[in-house]
Design a protein that fits this description.
The complex is a heterodimer of chains A (about 350) and B (about 270).
Chain A lengths: L3 E5 L1 E2 L2 E2 L1 H17 L3 E7 L6 H4 L6 E6 L8 H15 L3 E5 L4 H12 L3 E2 L4 E8 L6 E11 L5 E6 L6 E5 L16 E4 L14 E7 L11 E5 L6 H14 L2 E4 L1 H5 L20 E5 L5 H4 L7 E6 L12 E4 L2 H15 L2
Helix pairs in contact in A: 3-4, 5-8
Chain B lengths: L17 H16 L6 E5 L5 H10 L3 E5 L9 H12 L6 E5 L10 H9 L3 E12 L2 E8 L2 E8 L2 E5 L11 H7 L5 H4 L4 H9 L6 E3 L19 E7 L8 E3 L3 H13 L5
Parallel strand pairs in B: 1-2, 2-8, 3-7, 4-7
Antiparallel strand pairs in B: 4-5, 5-6
């Protein structure tokens, strides 16, 4: 009862990165609350799945192994999860802000009448006093996320409803091994107890998932472009610099929305969080939704025509000027000096 | 922003969320493929949100409903989906299509929560909705790293992704026909001539519902019906890094590249 739960996404027998990141975060939250960390793995042919999960600090792994749970469809997963949560009454439940977690989370939160905060960038434990009733709440989950435009960060709490649910994007939290020999308990779910035929009405006819060729998260150098790059053609310049430096090209949401770059390249709250050695921000103004995804970069170079662009506050080097003139010079002098 | 951390929507212009336009396009295509079907728009918000209904009618929607009451103020996604689901209980429909998410909150929660409250299946991240057979939809979904096709029986809730087909533009003939359409709140101060015109053309009267028009529990609405509370809103003031300002001259960039190579950041 009252433990911290993490819903683990499984694809082809492998627990996804975002799930392992959430287990690491969940371990820290459970420790600070003095409770257990429990993981839920739903799918088919899940033998040994717990071996991927325990090292990240889970005390219990609930395994629901049933052909009806693979591939993922909303109703069966939501039914099992909501049913388990009703029995186990977790105080905190976390899931990835992925196409699965963002499909499943709201359905489960509605079934349980619990609050859900999407796309959190930070999760902490803290106290809360309700302004109206003056009632004090101890040890709530602070669900922290950028909000409603501008440089605003909101801290959301769920004082009365349980579980306190949050989704987090892949790459936002760090994945760590708590202890390679960490051993917990495996509990088998009796899937039949939760499902009925009416939950199986949506059928997956075909499914095509490819491994992404773009590896933003793992890149040690990211050359990112914003709306200020101006066109898809101008992005070629960024690709040229990134290729030369052995890096990857990223983009702000504005650039992705404008069609300058692929969605997988998006850095920020609704994209990928990166922590490279070097981040070169080209024509990016620096809204918090973007900087939330790159502020932990070791060195930041900002290139912007506006000397007052907010991105400059994050920059070790703030270059004021036209990226179409500056990037070619960077390429030129890198080639000259690296010989 | 109000003191309780919720948004003062009355102070904002009513805009069509981009993905709601993608959703509308899917609805209009289905209508074209199924003679006799109709498309209606439901929106919740202050009086000016009726603009959304008119915009949809300019593009081919048959009508709409405005759900508007102070009792809805401060609703989080769960309280919003509750109110919408109660309004939907008043409307006979086979398929509810919504945009995946709004551009302010970005939560993508209301569609699935409405589906749960209605007890209907949901299909999220849709790119294309087709009728596969009597009472069955075939939907192409966009996943992070791929796509899938699913079949789903009606009734259902489908949320449409921004990668779906763009919405058709306004139709000039429909703009002329519906530009005087008004919800009750908007028509409050209208002239007698206006009401005479509405009498002649009843389609100009947009349905408006308040909390008394839907069967609902008041405790489930607005702030009291919202499990999530805003504890704090902070304007983030970043401690600016000590940055070196460069104007991008050859000498500066030559030195910068040398420095980054020397300290093994690059190369």
């Amino acid at each position: 009862m009252n433990n911290v739960f993490v819903y683990c996404e499984i694809e082809d027998g492998v627990a996804s990165d975002v799930s392992l990141e959430l287990l690491t975060k969940g371990r820290a939250l459970a420790t600070s609350l003095g409770v257990k960390l429990e993981a839920v793995a739903l799918g088919n042919n899940l033998d040994g799945i717990e071996k991927q999960i325990f090292p990240h600090g889970a005390d219990v792994v609930w395994v629901g192994d049933d052909a009806r749970l693979d591939p993922y469809t909303t109703l069966p997963h939501a039914k099992v999860l909501a049913g388990l949560f009703k029995e186990e009454r977790p105080q905190v439940a976390l899931m990835g802000a992925t196409s699965v977690g963002r499909d499943l989370g709201p359905r489960v939160s509605s079934a349980l009448h619990s609050g859900l905060t999407a796309d959190c960038t930070s999760l902490e434990i803290g106290d809360y006093v309700d302004a109206k009733s003056k009632r004090e709440y101890k040890n709530l989950l602070y669900q922290i996320r950028p909000a409603f435009g501008g440089n605003i960060v909101a801290t959301i709490v769920n004082p009365d409803c349980r579980p306190q649910m949050a989704t987090v994007r892949e790459g936002v939290m760090r994945k760590e091994i708590a202890d390679p020999a960490y051993a917990g308990e495996v509990k088998r779910l009796r899937v039949d107890d939760y499902l009925e035929d009416a939950d199986l009405v949506v059928k997956v006819i075909s499914r095509h998932v490819e491994k992404s060729k773009i590896n933003l998260k793992g890149a040690s150098i990211v050359v990112a472009g914003g709306y200020g790059v101006g066109s898809r053609e101008n992005f070629n310049l960024l690709h040229e610099l990134a290729d030369l430096l052995g890096g990857e090209v990223g983009a702000s949401r504005a650039a992705v929305d404008a069609g300058f770059a692929e969605h997988e390249r998006q850095v920020g709250q609704t994209g990928t969080t990166v922590r490279p050695k070097l981040y070169i921000a080209c024509g990016i103004s620096g809204q918090i939704q973007h900087t939330a995804g790159m502020e932990e970069s070791a060195i930041v170079i900002a290139i912007n025509t506006d000397p007052a662009a907010p991105i400059n506050k994050f920059a070790d080097y703030a270059i004021t000027g036209d990226l179409n003139a500056i990037i070619p010079k960077m390429i030129q002098y890198y080639k000259k000096n690296s010989k | 922003m109000k003191a309780d951390g919720t948004v003062n929507r009355a102070a904002l212009p009513a805009i069509f969320n981009p993905e709601d336009l993608n959703a509308l396009e899917q609805a209009l295509r289905l209508k074209a493929s199924r003679p006799g079907s109709t498309v209606h728009v439901l929106t919740m918000g202050p009086g000016r949100a009726a603009e959304i209904i008119r915009e949809a009618m300019y593009r081919g929607a048959d009508g709409g409903y405005l759900l508007s009451d102070r009792a809805f103020a401060g609703s989080d996604t769960l309280a919003t989906s509750y109110a919408l689901s109660r309004a939907l209980a008043n409307i006979s429909s086979d398929l509810i299509i919504c945009g995946r998410q709004a551009i302010d909150g970005d939560t993508a929660q209301v569609g699935p929560q409405v589906a749960e409250k209605l007890g209907w299946p949901q299909v999220t991240y849709a790119e294309e909705i087709r009728v596969a057979g009597e009472g069955v939809l075939r939907v192409r979904r966009r996943l992070e790293r791929g796509a899938e096709e699913v079949e789903c029986p009606l009734p259902a809730v489908v949320t449409v992704n921004g990668s779906a087909a763009a919405c058709r533009p306004r139709n000039a003939r429909l703009v002329m026909k519906y530009k005087h359409a008004r919800a009750a709140q908007e028509a409050q101060d209208a002239s007698e001539d206006y009401f005479a015109m509405v009498n002649e053309r009843p389609y100009l009267k947009l349905t408006e519902w308040n909390v008394n028009d839907i069967r609902c529990e008041a405790s489930e609405l607005g702030l009291s019906g919202s499990p999530t509370k805003v504890k704090a809103i902070e304007n983030v003031v970043f401690q600016a890094k000590e940055s070196r300002r460069l104007s991008g001259t050859d000498v500066e960039l030559d030195a910068l590249m040398k420095e980054l190579i020397a300290n093994h950041t690059i190369g």
